[in-house]
Amino acid sequence: MKGRLRGCSSGRKKKKKEVCGGLLSLLPDDVFVDILAKLPRLDLVALATVSRRHRNIAACHELWSMRYRLKSVEPYMYVYMHMYPDPMPTLRRLKRIHPPPPRSFCPAAAPVEGSCFVRTDRGIYTIGGLLMDGKPTSGVTFFDCIDHKVYRVAPMKMARSGASASLIEERKIYVFGGCWDDDVTANCWVEVYDIHTKTWELLSVVSMPPKIKMPLKIKESMTMHEKNVYMVAEDGEIFFFSTSECRVLAAGGVKDSDPENHNDWRLYDETFICRGVGGRVLWRSLYKLGWNEVKGLEELQKQHIIKICAFPPDRIAIFWSQGPAYQTLELWFTEVSLKGHWETEDEFQLWGNIESSAAVFSDSSITAFHLLYADSFFL
């Protein structure tokens, strides 16, 4: 009798679960997707645990495209941090300014020294780098910010470290430099990954002027005018790459004035932003070499700025660390809006306004941390 009653109880629970699942299954996929598109992201995560059907729909590209159109997305920052004495970097998600404790993802897929990164609407590609034996790798991984999984991508045709990469037209990733073999650098300096076909292709590049020496390490690369790439080599020399003509143009030996101290370049329309020294944020025109300080951010000069990244649609995110030795280390995030002003008929200035600022991470167990990569996503 006891076993029979236990069986009846189990049967009733199972039937109740099946009825609930049956009611949900009556909804057509298009109706269900329309409902999910209007929910907060955390509710989507909760629904994904209900059934495989919910999980598959919650991760589908059509749903997230609809969420973008309906503006149902929320801003998140993803950062790769190496926290000492931990041996490997980890990926953390920070929800804007006042998040819960940051959550760590996928430490096994951490980038290695010399890796470069490319952000897409859905996630982060980690490309190349140095292995433990000191040799460059052709390995590539993709971290999906929607389902929080790491996927192995087809490896590059050439092993690379110290390369730079740019996304063109949301479809192709161009990887520049990083080839350590002098015999193949000129012929294999650029290769491109097609996100749709999931294939790599080495490009035969025409250089202007002919026979210019291709730089081994590209410090910065930024997409401009949709199909061209502006590059700064490790020594500061400037190059342009045309994707339509597959041509590299040297800027006549023109160099950046201080490449060692100009980091985290970003291009907004025709204005460059970068991280300078002494807590300064700098800007310059696409067509001029002289850097100027962004006005209105003087209070940040007291801080140790360690990273700048874009924060759509027209803002930047500034990360800085705080905490003397033997005290709790904190990572701070500041959201800054930018606006240009003509001070006189001949003088243009870029002004920044701090919209919000707060600590987003703190840990008394770490001795130091290094922010390898940061970027924003709307999810």
From TrEMBL:
Residues 21-67 form the F-box domain. It holds the Pfam family Kelch_FKB95. This is F-box domain-containing protein. The lineage of its organism: Eukaryota, Viridiplantae, Streptophyta, Embryophyta, Tracheophyta.
